[in-house]
Amino acid sequence: MNTAQRTARPRAAEAVEGARAAREHLANHRTRTGVIARQLDLIAPGTARVRIVPVRTDRDDEQRVAMWVALDDALGLPLKVDRPACRAALGLLRRAFPAADWTRPRAYDTATGGLALDVPTLPEELHQ
Fold first, then answer.
1. Would 5 be classed as within a structural domain?
2. Rounded to the nearest 10 degrees, how much is the dihedral formed by the CA atoms of 119, 122, 123, 125?
3. pTM, whole model, 2 decimals?
4. Which of 30, 59, 69, 105 could form a disulfide with 118 if both were Cys (CB 3.0 to 4.6 A apart)?
5. How many CB atoms sit inside 10 A of residue 97's CB?
6. Phi, psi of 61 (to 5 degrees)
7. Any idea of the CA torsion for 89, 56, 106, 84, to the nearest 10 degrees?
8. Domain count along the chain
9. Measured at the alpha carbon of residue 69, what is the angle toward residues 65 and 75, in degrees to the nearest 5?
């Protein structure tokens, strides 16, 4: 009597499924990056990079954390924007990246769509 046995899924099928998932993820990433870039351009035309730094303040003898936001153009020069534009950019990025740790400095690049840790570094010639 023959009994049916389950066989393992072929590796080729797993590879095809993994490649399909990767293409789908990349397409979603490109779409999201484009949407965020267009929305930032509506907030402040020419925005290429957004830098967000948490700053501790002391108001009325109470410690608070405020967010300092800078919008830069493609050359790295700061754009002249008002407070509502900075708040809008911060809100947009917080909604787009809810899992990010906003207690640390962050930088968003509109070209890559990447939100990275923005820590100061020493120039190479100062390393010893």
1. no
2. -160
3. 0.72
4. 105
5. 14
6. 60, 30
7. 10
8. 1
9. 155
Q: What is the mean pLDDT of each run of 10 residues along the chain (128 residues)?
A: 68 79 74 91 95 89 90 94 95 93 94 89 77
Contacts of 72 (CB under 8 A, 6+ apart): 47, 48, 49, 50, 51, 78, 79
Enclosing domain of residue 15: 11-126
Strands 62-72 and 114-117: unpaired
- Report if residue 110 sits inside a domain: yes
Q: Reduce the secondary structure of 77-111 to three states and give it as a string.
A: CECCCCHHHHHHHHHHHHHHCCCCCCCCCEEEECC
Q: Taking a C-beta distance cutoff of 8 angstroms, is the pair 33, 89 a contact? A: no
In angstroms, the first-to-last Cα distance of the chain is 76
Task: State residue 8's pLDDT score.
Answer: 66
Query: Which residue bears the tokens 């979603």?
Result: 28
CB atoms within 10 A of CB 115: 17
Q: How far apart are CA 73 and CA 94, in angstroms?
A: 20
